[in-house]
Amino acid sequence: MRSTQKKAGKDEKKEKVQLPDAAAIFQKRLKKHHDELKWLYTELYGNDSMFAELCDNMWQFYQERNDTLRALDEKREAQPDWYKKNDMLGMMFYIDNFAGNMKGVESRLDYIEQCNVNYIHLMPFLDTPEGRSDGGYAVSDFRKVQEKLGTMEDLESLTAACHKKGINVCMDFVMNHTSEDHEWAKKARGGDGEYMDRYFFFDNSYIPSLYEKTVPQVFPTTAPGNFTWLPDAGHFVMTTFYPYQWDLNYKNPRVFNEMMYNFLYLANRGIDIIRIDAVPYIWKELNTSCRNLLQVHTIVRMMRMISEIVCPGILLLGEVVMEPEKVVPYFGTVEKPECHMLYNVTTMATTWHTVATRDVGLLKKQLDIVNSLPKDYVFLNYLRCHDDIGWGLDYATLQQEGIRERDHKKYLNDYFQGYDGDSNSRGELYNADPVTGDARFCGTTASMCGIEKAGFEQNAEAMERAIRFDVMLHAYMFMQSGIPVLYSGDEIGQVNDYTYKENPLKAADSRYIHRGAMNWELAKNIADPRTVEGKLFTALDRLEKLRKQEKVFVSNADTWTIETWDSSVLCIGRYFEGEKILGLFNFSEFDKTAWINETDGEYVELISGERMQASGVNIPAYGFYYLKKC
Ligand code: GLC
Questions:
Q1: Is the pLDDT of residue 420 over 90?
Q2: Is 277 a catalytic residue?
């Protein structure tokens, strides 16, 4: 039997009293989902004994789950909307960049609280080979923390410390692939058939070449193709991402079961939010794009049920970086939910399109699409993350204005590299594909807003403008429904970090430009209003507190956009239980007037406290207003 992590003495006695209850709770949850789970499992695998094994293991992992986590599960089960309020604010960071190691993060929790953050996404921290890690997304051991970052005990200590402060912890579950250094991969490479069956192995190029006809490339420049030839093994292996990331074969029930055990093992370390990495890719079929296949949804639905049986306090966050019609199905349905949360990726990309064009038309349309979705859906809103910004925009709409996809992508990439006369942005391309002409973009929020350029040119006026712009973008993000997530360092306006170029292990991957280490020297300035850090931090602090105070920011408030009759000014309205707020955002470098005409009385601007009418509102360049109905 597995360790139950109980202390001796008093707790043991407690366990004896609790066990029958615990068994009853487990049985109740299992009963609720058993038939559907079995149905789906049988549909994919038709294997009763493997299903029985899965059920046995769920029970084991449930027993292993500590009392504190079980109590949290029950609390959250009783309030299933616990994450849909307006009090959630996330921050993501690499542990080493933020604070050296796990213990370092634990010692920085006060700073995290000071940032009003109650949800931290710890970027991949599991064992991964140095130099072949893809930022940790190539896992060689799902049950071991990278030595330089700490141990599993440190993780448990960190999650427990976070829970004491009401901070939720998110981690990645990289389930599409393992590192080539994972023990399964090593055995497969050595010719062990059982392990070869856990991946996609081919002894000649015929089948791989058929796949290549229909499967697009993720990293066309840094890792072209979807297969890698292994000369020592005399086989090709499927590698959708980097050659050292071997795709797992989920047609094999052993793979599914073992990965679910890893998932539950990690959940039991005190993780609150599991980010399912690259989820659209996990099922492969010949003659398809190997993206978003129906079986992917079956697997995610099973994961949801498995977590509701063993650890219902956790949330599933799906990483689906695709167009809206591909993203939304990952919420599942009301009766058969899949992910709790998804990234608002098209809105993020459209935001930057708006920054470059100063035209809010497409963004308004995109927000209208999101706002028309069921209010139960929770989106994770962000200005940027650890990955590149891909220009996945609604080109059908842009086409109507004569804007062509290829030209527009080039325009955006030129703009954000700072090549356009009107641009103050700095950053670099990512995976520029000479064949398709496609490229994505990398840079920190501050650099893309002009803070880097203004600092370099020592231009105080330009700096003021860049800070105002950066704050406005955050204010706009906070106005959206869902959970806002900051990238660590953005709260003090950290700019691009070019040192990655000196590191041969990172130089080829420009995403490292926006993954720089937290600059704690600069962070000392957060209380000094004369500094960039102080100005930005104080302004964001104000907004974050407002967002938590005003109930109109709850995730399921009515949200809509309002025509302002100025192409650079966006207006978002929110309404909840008698309270109404209008957010006005000027995306241009010129002062503007929002020609709105809300005739329902007086409003108060929440930042300045000024009372005004919500009609014909003058907004300064890159400014914003939060107008609350009195
Ligand atoms: C996700 C991660 C990305 C990584 C990829 C492969 O998209 O966000 O950083 O390269 O998965 O695991």
A1: no
A2: yes
Q: Which residue in 249, 263, 244 sits closest to 194, CA to CA?
A: 249
- The three state secondary structure string of 36-70 is HHHHHHHHHHCCHHHHHHHHHHHHHHHHHCCHHHH
Question: What does each C-alpha distance from 64 to 9, 59, 67, 70, 434 come to in angstroms?
Answer: 18, 9, 9, 10, 52
Q: Whose CA is nearest to atom 12 of ligand 1?
A: 137
CA of 137 to the centre of ligand 1 (A): 6
Average pLDDT over residues 426-442: 91
- Does residue 521 carry a catalytic annotation? no
242 Cα–ligand 1 center, Å = 10
Low-confidence winner among 7-11, 450-454, 497-501 (lowest mean pLDDT): 7-11
- CA of residue 226 to ligand 1 center, whole Å: 15
The residue nearest atom 4 of ligand 1, judged by CA position, is: 137
Atom number, ligand 1, closest to the C-alpha of residue 174 = 12
What percent of the chain is predicted at pLDDT more than 70?
97
Per-residue pLDDT reduced to its tens digit, 190-231: 999 999 999 999 999 999 999 999 999 988 888 889 999 999
The helix/strand/coil state of 16 is helix
Check whether 29 has a pLDDT greater than 50: yes
Half-sphere exposure of 225 (CA within 13 A, CB side): 13
85 burial (CB, 10 Å; 0-12 / 13-18 / 19+) is middle
Which residue type does 120 have? Answer: I
- Cα of 41 vs centre of ligand 1, distance in Å, is 27
Q: How far apart are CA 514 and CA 503, in angstroms?
A: 15
Enumerate residues lining ligand 1, CB below 6 A. Answer: 134-135, 137, 174, 241, 277-278, 319, 387
Q: Of 319, 470, 497, 550, which one is the catalytic site residue?
A: 319
Chain segment 346-375, per-residue pLDDT in tens? 999 999 999 999 999 999 999 999 999 999
Percent of the chain residues past pLDDT 90, beyond the cut: 93
